[in-house]
Amino acid sequence: MSIKAELIALAEKVSGESNLSAADIAAAIALLAAKMPEAPGTATTTTAGLVKQGVAVPDAAGETVTGTEFNALLASLRGGGSVATAAAST
Question: How far is residue 75's CA from residue 85's CA, in Å, rounded to a whole number?
């Protein structure tokens, strides 16, 4: 199958339309561009979004997690954007 035919087939699949004209490649490209989802922005406490991978945190050394181990996990989650930054103390 040619690139033109593949493009038309893809545009038809994405749009749900059929019988797109092979002569109308520009319209097929515009249709695909219009249907292309935008990348989500930064995640907030109320809006889903992209987050970075947190830094590696060592496994807990024993059966009881220490404050240092727990704080390292929280710092990794905050640094990656999965958890909001701690509120300022008053």
Answer: 9
